[in-house]
């Protein structure tokens, strides 16, 4: 076979292996194709892939010989990346010395150290500066290239036609780093931007060195020093880097650019954007500004002349490709500056923006220091070389993605912003043929679209339209309505007992309002659970209405015992679940707790009451007050992690005291007491069993199920009270009030009961979590509400028992249907609001029982729970920028949505695998994880918790950022992470962590979408416009872990998927997290 191959190669006339075999066998000819195809068929060999295997290619890194050039094309880390890919790498001895990379560093990375001629004879040469004449060897660098080699370097082909001619003689393929198109997909390969970033930073450092004062303002015992004033011309990469550096040093920064987008960038960095009166857009091609009109330039020069007399430092960066830099500062302007001022001209190499600049020199003219260096990136050689190396590595991997062969194919037909666009623009010579300039793409954007105003800007404009008079009038109207309501209630009050109850209700509501606002968001789930348990005091109503002996003797007594039984399930189950959740937040380093000692105050409270009762004292009202205060303490205890378990204990004491006082006031017979005890014992046993067995991931559906029990208990109690009190209505002056409260309590309880069951079904997966949008659902709900209200007319007018019971039964059925239609129209992602609203409903149902039974305890506790649920509902709605009516009625869109056509999202996404993600995690020191409901559904909290533990042990700063509506109930993710062992002090809320994203190296988005969607801030027409979100895209790098690129619950595309600093790690969250955990453990143990 070998001899056959030699015969075939020697006897052919047309190349067929130009991109397959090394240069040594480039002489294979076309007439032999039939012979090779025959042997391929006979040997069942697949057609060879195009390109040359990496292992057959040598990459050469020569030492830069351009005067004062200290950079090197590849850093040791870059060499290591190429060696890992399969390349052979040779580095000229001393190539990295000026960049602080020794030969030993390169050897350790896998490179060989060789001489100049050997390195320049490589298959692929990477350089910083274009090839020049080597005076030491007496030969041009290009003449030392081997035939058909590939060169990657800054070339500037339009300015160097002679160099291109010399390279063409060697059949060289040239990738010009200065010709990488400035499109989104190529940002990682944009070496011009990398170098401009360094130049902008270095310009500020040099200016500070030559400036005779602090940049930041100082107030000392010797006097006050004002901050330096810095003017930056040009809002490109260099200008923005200068602005950021100067601002961080405390200077007052001003920026000017002819492009509106660049001025916005200046503003985002805290600089003051300067504009002229002439309205003209400076948007040009390729990311540069265009030349402006004569009128604009005149206005511009007047602005600059005025600024020269005020500022201390000027940094200019204005360039127009292929042309001499425009003169923006005349000699007289510079001479008008204060003595000691400094000017830095980053356009010096192209002639300069300042008339008095001397390229390559630093000198003083009329007291103003001029810095005209043309090699600023080289003056930070280590950093510049590292970034340039990264640009080259990313470019080579992008244009040749094959894992075995090096191959790329420039095409003359390509679309704008694609990888083909990058390849064709970068390759200026192919096999000795000059193909510069590249043809235009097929779909060049027709000019930049008019910039949309941000959501924040629109909100500010909207707020500005509200006059102070209108604002004050609105506030005054609210207070007028509230005080008028008080007068109305006083007029219709049937007796003083009702007035006292309203007073208790109002004060309890105010206390509950202020108490619940103090609860930390991380404990919102325990708050829901403890209020659920306390709402089980509907058992008080059942106990009051119970009768008979060992068993009930009529319908009303049967309803009462059922209410007591159901409420007991809530009490016992709610407190146990709360305790389980709070125990999860304990850290190994926390001091020991002795919460069993709270049995002492509980025992004194209940036992002392029993002793007082036995002594003939009637202190039930004081017991109710004490129990109510304990329930307030239960909510207040959740304000911090340290007092949370005390809060749960106080809740238990409060409920126990209330039940004891109720039994003491009733003084039941032994038989009835046995019936009461049996109902509560059975309910408590069931509640404890459920709470002990439930998984924490199922907590939302458990809360929903318990809410349904509260609603059902309220309905049963209200109907039973009507049955028992009916014979006294004719003589009772408060009969109408009793009937109204019983009717309202029945309605609220019915909605709570059925709505909670539907919520349970959606969360448990029994029902489809998607919203059920029935045709005409709003009309249906309006009809059900009208029928429920209309039912009060015969109920109040007709005094007959049959009519009353029929109306109560009807409103029970109507409210139950309405609970179903309302909740079914709400999607699974809105369940946090549904659960908090249902929680609020249960509180108001409890209040209704309090008014019905004239019981202070039920009124106080009901007001607490009602206000708690209302506040949590408000917090959830604010977190989505939606109104409560919008959520409850199954609507979409935020209150800020403009209603126009949503922003079109363009670009391509970047996908990575687990190995790539591990490398990014290992390189990052400051990491934030933003989980969503996908983490809950996949139960991925355990591998993530272990991953975080390992990373923290390596000294990395790892934290979590939680959105208020992430999960299916408030605080669910906090509880899940606590269950997995994540310390609560590294789990932060959105408002606490959003400011930290710009300083974050890496963000891991796990199973979240809408809560990290940048369209909420960038697109006023998005249906989530104005929704507060975790600003993950502001970090340096983002890894999004999702099953697919699909939309979230809001059905809105997420622009962050297509941002240049985002990588998509697609797949099942649990499997991906398991893989990350295993890989990190393996890497740190090896």
From TrEMBL:
<keyword id="KW-0809">Transit peptide</keyword>
<dbReference type="InterPro" id="IPR026255">
    <property type="entry name" value="NADP_transhyd_a"/>
</dbReference>
<keyword id="KW-1278">Translocase</keyword>
<keyword id="KW-0812">Transmembrane</keyword>
<feature type="transmembrane region" description="Helical">
    <location>
        <begin position="780"/>
        <end position="797"/>
    </location>
</feature>
<keyword id="KW-0520">NAD</keyword>
<dbReference type="InterPro" id="IPR036291">
    <property type="entry name" value="NAD(P)-bd_dom_sf"/>
</dbReference>
<dbReference type="GO" id="GO:0016491">
    <property type="term" value="F:oxidoreductase activity"/>
</dbReference>
<dbReference type="GO" id="GO:0006740">
    <property type="term" value="P:NADPH regeneration"/>
</dbReference>
<dbReference type="GO" id="GO:0005743">
    <property type="term" value="C:mitochondrial inner membrane"/>
</dbReference>
<dbReference type="Pfam" id="PF05222">
    <property type="entry name" value="AlaDh_PNT_N"/>
</dbReference>
<comment type="similarity">
    <text>In the C-terminal section; belongs to the PNT beta subunit family.</text>
</comment>
<feature type="transmembrane region" description="Helical">
    <location>
        <begin position="740"/>
        <end position="760"/>
    </location>
</feature>
<feature type="transmembrane region" description="Helical">
    <location>
        <begin position="597"/>
        <end position="616"/>
    </location>
</feature>
<protein>
    <recommendedName>
        <fullName>NAD(P) transhydrogenase, mitochondrial</fullName>
        <ecNumber>7.1.1.1</ecNumber>
    </recommendedName>
</protein>
<dbReference type="InterPro" id="IPR008143">
    <property type="entry name" value="Ala_DH/PNT_CS2"/>
</dbReference>
<feature type="domain" description="Alanine dehydrogenase/pyridine nucleotide transhydrogenase NAD(H)-binding">
    <location>
        <begin position="208"/>
        <end position="372"/>
    </location>
</feature>
<keyword id="KW-0521">NADP</keyword>
<feature type="domain" description="Alanine dehydrogenase/pyridine nucleotide transhydrogenase N-terminal">
    <location>
        <begin position="60"/>
        <end position="199"/>
    </location>
</feature>
<keyword id="KW-1133">Transmembrane helix</keyword>
<comment type="subunit">
    <text>Homodimer.</text>
</comment>
<dbReference type="GO" id="GO:0008750">
    <property type="term" value="F:proton-translocating NAD(P)+ transhydrogenase activity"/>
</dbReference>
<keyword id="KW-0999">Mitochondrion inner membrane</keyword>
<dbReference type="InterPro" id="IPR008142">
    <property type="entry name" value="AlaDH/PNT_CS1"/>
</dbReference>
<feature type="transmembrane region" description="Helical">
    <location>
        <begin position="858"/>
        <end position="879"/>
    </location>
</feature>
<dbReference type="InterPro" id="IPR024605">
    <property type="entry name" value="NADP_transhyd_a_C"/>
</dbReference>
<keyword id="KW-0472">Membrane</keyword>
<feature type="transmembrane region" description="Helical">
    <location>
        <begin position="501"/>
        <end position="523"/>
    </location>
</feature>
<comment type="function">
    <text>The transhydrogenation between NADH and NADP is coupled to respiration and ATP hydrolysis and functions as a proton pump across the membrane. May play a role in reactive oxygen species (ROS) detoxification in the adrenal gland.</text>
</comment>
<feature type="transmembrane region" description="Helical">
    <location>
        <begin position="672"/>
        <end position="691"/>
    </location>
</feature>
<dbReference type="InterPro" id="IPR007698">
    <property type="entry name" value="AlaDH/PNT_NAD(H)-bd"/>
</dbReference>
<dbReference type="InterPro" id="IPR007886">
    <property type="entry name" value="AlaDH/PNT_N"/>
</dbReference>
<feature type="transmembrane region" description="Helical">
    <location>
        <begin position="646"/>
        <end position="666"/>
    </location>
</feature>
<dbReference type="GO" id="GO:0050661">
    <property type="term" value="F:NADP binding"/>
</dbReference>
<dbReference type="InterPro" id="IPR034300">
    <property type="entry name" value="PNTB-like"/>
</dbReference>
<feature type="transmembrane region" description="Helical">
    <location>
        <begin position="703"/>
        <end position="724"/>
    </location>
</feature>
<feature type="transmembrane region" description="Helical">
    <location>
        <begin position="557"/>
        <end position="577"/>
    </location>
</feature>
<feature type="transmembrane region" description="Helical">
    <location>
        <begin position="530"/>
        <end position="551"/>
    </location>
</feature>
<dbReference type="Pfam" id="PF12769">
    <property type="entry name" value="PNTB_4TM"/>
</dbReference>
<dbReference type="Pfam" id="PF01262">
    <property type="entry name" value="AlaDh_PNT_C"/>
</dbReference>
<comment type="similarity">
    <text>In the N-terminal section; belongs to the AlaDH/PNT family.</text>
</comment>
<dbReference type="Pfam" id="PF02233">
    <property type="entry name" value="PNTB"/>
</dbReference>
């Amino acid at each position: 076979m070998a001899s056959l191959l030699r015969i075939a190669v020697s006897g052919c006339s047309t190349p067929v292996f130009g991109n397959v075999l090394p240069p040594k066998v480039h002489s294979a000819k076309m007439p032999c194709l039939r012979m090779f195809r025959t042997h391929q068929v006979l040997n069942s060999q697949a057609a060879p892939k195009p390109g040359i295997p990496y292992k057959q290619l040598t990459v050469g890194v020569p030492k830069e010989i351009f005067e004062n050039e200290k950079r090197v094309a590849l850093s040791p880390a870059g060499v290591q990346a190429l060696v890992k890919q399969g390349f052979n790498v040779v580095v000229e001895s001393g190539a990295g010395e000026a960049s602080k990379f020794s030969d030993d560093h390169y050897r350790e990375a896998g490179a060989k150290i060789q001489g100049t001629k050997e390195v320049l004879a490589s298959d692929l040469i990477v350089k910083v500066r274009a090839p020049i004449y080597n005076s030491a060897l007496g030969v041009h660098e290009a003449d030392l290239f081997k035939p058909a080699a590939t060169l990657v370097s800054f070339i500037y082909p339009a300015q160097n036609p002679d160099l291109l001619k010399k390279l063409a003689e060697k059949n060289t393929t040239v990738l010009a780093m200065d010709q990488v198109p400035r499109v989104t997909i190529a940002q990682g390969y944009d070496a011009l931007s990398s170098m401009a970033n360094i130049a902008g930073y270095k310009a500020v450092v040099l200016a500070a060195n030559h400036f005779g004062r602090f940049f930041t303002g100082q107030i000392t015992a010797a006097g006050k020093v004002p901050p330096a004033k810095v003017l930056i011309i040009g809002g490109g990469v260099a200008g923005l880097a200068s602005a950021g550096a100067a601002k961080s040093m405390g200077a007052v920064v001003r920026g000017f650019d002819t492009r509106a987008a660049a001025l916005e960038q200046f503003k985002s960095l805290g600089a003051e954007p300067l504009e002229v009166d002439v309205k003209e857009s400076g948007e040009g091609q390729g990311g540069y500004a265009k030349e402006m009109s004569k009128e604009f330039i005149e206005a511009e020069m007047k602005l600059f002349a005025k600024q020269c007399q005020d500022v201390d430092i000027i940094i200019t960066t204005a360039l127009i490709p292929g042309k001499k830099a425009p003169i923006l500062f005349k000699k007289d302007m510079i001479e008008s500056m204060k003595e000691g001022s400094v000017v830095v001209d980053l356009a010096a190499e192209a002639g300069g923006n300042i008339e008095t600049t001397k390229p390559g020199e630093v000198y003083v003219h009329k007291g103003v220091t001029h810095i005209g260096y043309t090699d600023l990136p080289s003056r930070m050689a280590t950093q510049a070389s590292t970034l340039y190396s990264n640009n080259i590595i990313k470019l080579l991997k992008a244009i040749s993605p094959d894992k075995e062969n090096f191959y790329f194919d420039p095409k003359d037909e390509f679309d704008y912003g694609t990888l083909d666009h990058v390849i064709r623009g970068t390759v200026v010579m192919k096999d000795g043929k000059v193909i510069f300039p590249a043809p235009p793409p097929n779909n060049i954007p027709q000019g930049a679209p008019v910039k949309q105003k941000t959501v924040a800007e629109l909100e500010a404009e909207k707020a500005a339209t509200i006059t102070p008079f209108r604002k004050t009038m609105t506030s005054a109207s609210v207070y007028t309505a509230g005080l008028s309501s008080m007068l109305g209630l006083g007029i219709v009050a049937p007796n003083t007992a009702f007035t006292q109850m309203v007073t208790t209700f109002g004060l309890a509501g105010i206390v509950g309002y202020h108490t619940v606002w103090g609860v930390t968001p991380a404990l919102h789930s325990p708050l829901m659970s403890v209020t659920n348990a306390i709402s089980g005091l509907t058992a008080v109503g059942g106990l009051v209405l119970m009768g008979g002996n060992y068993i009930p003797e009529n319908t009303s007594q049967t309803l009462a015992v059922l209410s007591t039984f159901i409420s007991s399930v809530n009490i016992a189950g709610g407190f146990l679940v709360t305790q389980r959740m709070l125990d999860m937040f304990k850290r190994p380093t926390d001091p020991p707790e002795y919460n069993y000692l709270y049995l002492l105050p509980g025992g004194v409270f209940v036992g002392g009451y029993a002793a007082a009762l036995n002594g003939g004292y009637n202190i039930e009202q004081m017991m109710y007050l004490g129990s109510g205060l304990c329930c307030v303490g239960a909510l207040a205890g959740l304000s911090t992690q340290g007092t949370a378990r005390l809060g749960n204990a106080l809740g238990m004491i409060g409920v126990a005291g209330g039940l004891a006082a109720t039994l003491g006031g009733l003084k039941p017979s032994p038989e009835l007491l046995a019936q009461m005890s049996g109902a509560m014992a059975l309910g408590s046993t069931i509640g404890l069993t459920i709470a002990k067995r439930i998984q924490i991931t199922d907590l939302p559906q458990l809360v929903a199920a318990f809410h349904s029990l509260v609603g059902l208990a309220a309905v049963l109690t209200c109907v039973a009270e009507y049955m028992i009190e009916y014979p006294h209505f004719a003589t009772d002056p408060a009969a109408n009030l009793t009937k109204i409260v019983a009717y309202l309590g029945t309605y609220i309880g019915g909605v709570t009961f059925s709505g909670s069951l539907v919520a349970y079904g959606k969360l448990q997966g029994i029902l489809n979590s998607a919203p059920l949008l029935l045709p005409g659902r709003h009309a249906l709900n309006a009809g059900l509400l009208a029928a429920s209200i209309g039912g009060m007319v015969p109920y109040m007018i007709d005094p007959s028992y049959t009519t009353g019971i029929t109306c109560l039964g009807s409103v029970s059925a109507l409210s139950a249907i309405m609970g179903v239609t309302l909740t079914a129209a709400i999607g699974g992602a809105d369940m946090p609001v549904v659960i908090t609203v249902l929680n609020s409903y249960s509180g108001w149902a409890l209040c209704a029982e309090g008014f019905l039974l004239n019981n202070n305890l039920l009124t106080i506790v009901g007001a607490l729970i009602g206000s708690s649920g209302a506040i949590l509902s408000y917090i959830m709605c604010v977190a989505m920028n939606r109104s409560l009516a919008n959520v409850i009625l199954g609507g979409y869109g935020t209150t800020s949505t403009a209603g126009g056509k949503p922003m079109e999202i363009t670009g391509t996404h970047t996908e990575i695998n687990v190995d790539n993600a591990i490398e990014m995690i290992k390189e990052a020191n400051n990491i934030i994880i933003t989980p969503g409901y996908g983490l809950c559904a996949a139960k991925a909290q355990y591998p993530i918790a272990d991953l975080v533990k390992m990373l923290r042990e390596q000294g990395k700063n790892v934290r979590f950022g939680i959105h208020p509506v992430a999960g299916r109930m408030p605080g669910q993710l906090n509880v899940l992470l606590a269950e997995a062992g994540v310390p609560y002090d590294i789990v932060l809320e959105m408002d606490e962590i959003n400011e930290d994203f710009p300083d974050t190296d890496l963000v891991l988005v796990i199973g979240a979408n809408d809560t990290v969607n940048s369209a909420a801030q960038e697109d006023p027409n998005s249906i989530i416009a104005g929704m507060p979100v975790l600003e993950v895209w502001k970090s340096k790098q983002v890894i999004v872990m999702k099953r697919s690129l699909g939309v979230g619950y809001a059905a809105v595309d997420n622009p962050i998927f297509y941002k240049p600093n985002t990588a998509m790690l697609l797949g099942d969250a649990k499997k991906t997290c398991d893989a990350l955990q295993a890989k990190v453990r393996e890497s740190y143990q090896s």
